[in-house]
């Protein structure tokens, strides 16, 4: 076979291989993006079960040390406590990533800046947990570990969990806001369509449908305004558990009211 | 005498039968040999063709191509299998004798918007219930 023919075949095969490589990368990227939330959820679940296993080992080593007070049992207790505290940091990193990924379910069109703020605040939390894990791993004695656990506990109660509650409040409110906006757009366009079609004629079925829809809209709006009011009262970066629960309650009530319109929409489409 | 004559007759019949039977045998053998040789020849040809490619780079490239193709197909299959199933809600529909086909484009657009709105509402269920912080035991102390 001549040399030029062989080289042309070689380049042809190489080009096919590279095109397939590029194609596979293009095909895989969106699939991975879609699954990032599921991966974050799976990782958090894995870290939690690992935490449970290590917690049992830590408790057993602790009780052994407290009963016998030997140097070997103290060393075992030190090693197991160290593993346990490091695992708590791993679990918290996975948890914060999972909460951040859960935000991808929300339609951020009306509130894009808040999404970036939440991601930034979670990044700060994760770097804190990574630093704390390093401190735990550098510990040389058992006595160094309880103060590190206390420090983490305080940080969680004063900062991390409050940031989480705020993020969850923002998720709930932004999601219900987007749904409510959509509902209003659909309701308005339906009203325009009905008035254009009827052109002054009165129809009792449509009038009753409209009054029912107005009543639901008013109820939904009342709850949504309550949720918004509560949200305006919370701090820039944090929210208490109670504040989150209240915002969540009103957001849920709003979406429950909006759910009632599903049947009414089906009904009007059949009539029209 | 009669027995001897009948014996001769039988011999003649047998000879004639053998005459008819004998020319058929060589043909059958040839067919059998042909049918046995066919796959062997194909295998030999394939072997010769494979051995004739003396450049290992071409073989490597071909193998690489086949591996990439296999991995790509497997990943595509996995991606298609993992797609989340859509939650379908059973709606009780009132019976209508002859459902009218909607032809108005404005109404079709509104109907599509309503469908999207319903899906968005379904997503709302239990939105942040599984996002609550984990309960951790951080009371670490030794007596």
For the secondary structure, the number of strands of chain A is 0
**β content of chain B, as a range?**
under 5%
Percent of residues in beta strands of chain A? under 5%
Give the oligomeric state of the chains in this entry, treating copies of one chain as homo and distinct chains as hetero. heterodimer
Number of strands of chain B: 0
Flag low-confidence runs of chain B: none
Transmembrane segments (chain A): 12-33
Keywords (chain A): Membrane, Transmembrane, Transmembrane helix
Keywords (chain B): Membrane, Transmembrane, Transmembrane helix
Transmembrane segments (chain B): 58-79
Key terms:
heterodimer; A: about 270 residues; mainly alpha; flat; B: about 140 residues; 4 helices; membrane (chain B)
Notes on the structure:
Chain A: The chain crosses the membrane at residues 12-33. Chain A: Keywords: Membrane, Transmembrane, Transmembrane helix. Chain B: Keywords: Membrane, Transmembrane, Transmembrane helix. Chain B: The chain crosses the membrane at residues 58-79. The complex is a heterodimer of chains A (272) and B (143). The termini of chain A are far apart. The model of chain A has no long low-confidence stretch (mean pLDDT 89). Chain A has helices at 3-68, 71-102, 112-138, 145-198, 204-233, 241-259, 261-271. Chain A is built from 7 helices and no strands. With 272 residues, chain A is an all-alpha fold. Chain A has 2 domains: 3-164, no CATH class; 175-271. Chain B is an all-alpha fold and 143 residues long. Chain B has a domain at 54-81. Chain B has 4 helices and no strands. Chain B has helices at 2-21, 24-52, 56-81, 105-123. Chain B is elongated and about 110 Å long. Chains A and B meet through helix 1, helix 2, helix 4, helix 6 and helix 7 of A and helix 3 and helix 4 of B.
Can I get a quick summary?
By secondary structure, chain A is mostly helical.
């Amino acid at each position: 076979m001549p040399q030029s023919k062989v080289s042309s075949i070689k380049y042809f095969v190489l080009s096919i291989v590279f095109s397939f490589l590029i194609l596979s990368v293009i095909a895989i990227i969106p699939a991975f993006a879609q699954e990032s939330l599921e991966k974050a959820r799976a990782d958090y679940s894995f870290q939690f079960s690992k935490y449970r296993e290590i917690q049992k080992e830590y408790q057993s080593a602790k009780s052994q040390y407290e009963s016998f007070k030997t140097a070997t049992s103290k060393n075992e207790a030190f090693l197991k406590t160290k593993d346990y505290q490091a695992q708590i940091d791993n679990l918290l990193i996975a948890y914060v990533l999972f909460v951040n990924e859960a935000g991808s379910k929300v339609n951020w069109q009306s509130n894009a800046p808040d999404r970036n703020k939440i991601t930034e605040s979670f990044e700060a939390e994760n770097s804190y947990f990574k630093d704390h894990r390093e401190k735990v791993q550098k510990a040389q004695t058992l006595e160094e570990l309880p103060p590190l656990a206390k420090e983490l506990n305080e940080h969680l109660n004063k900062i991390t969990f409050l940031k989480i509650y705020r993020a969850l409040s923002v998720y709930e409110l932004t999601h219900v806001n987007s749904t409510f906006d959509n509902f209003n757009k659909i309701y308005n366009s339906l009203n325009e369509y009905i008035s254009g079609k009827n052109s002054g004629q009165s129809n009792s079925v449509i009038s009753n449908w409209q009054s029912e829809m107005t009543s639901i809209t008013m109820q939904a709006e009342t709850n949504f305004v309550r949720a918004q009011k509560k949200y305006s009262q919370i701090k820039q970066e944090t929210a208490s558990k109670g504040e989150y629960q209240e915002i969540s309650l009103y957001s849920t009530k709003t979406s429950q009211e909006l759910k009632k319109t599903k049947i009414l929409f089906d009904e009007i489409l059949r009539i029209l | 005498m009669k027995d001897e004559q009948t014996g001769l007759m039988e011999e003649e019949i047998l000879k004639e039968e053998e005459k008819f039977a004998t020319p058929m045998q060589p043909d059958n053998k040839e067919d059998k040999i042909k049918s046995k040789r066919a796959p062997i020849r194909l295998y030999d040809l394939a072997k010769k063709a494979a051995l004739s490619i003396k450049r290992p780079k071409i073989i490597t490239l071909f193998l690489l191509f086949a591996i990439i193709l296999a991995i790509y197909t497997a990943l595509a299959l996995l991606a298609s299998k993992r797609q989340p199933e859509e939650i379908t809600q059973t709606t009780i529909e009132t019976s209508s004798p002859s459902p009218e086909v909607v032809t108005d484009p404005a109404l079709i657009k509104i109907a599509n918007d309503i469908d999207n709105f319903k899906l968005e509402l379904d997503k709302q269920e239990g939105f942040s219930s599984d996002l609550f912080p984990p309960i951790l035991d951080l009371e670490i102390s030794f007596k």
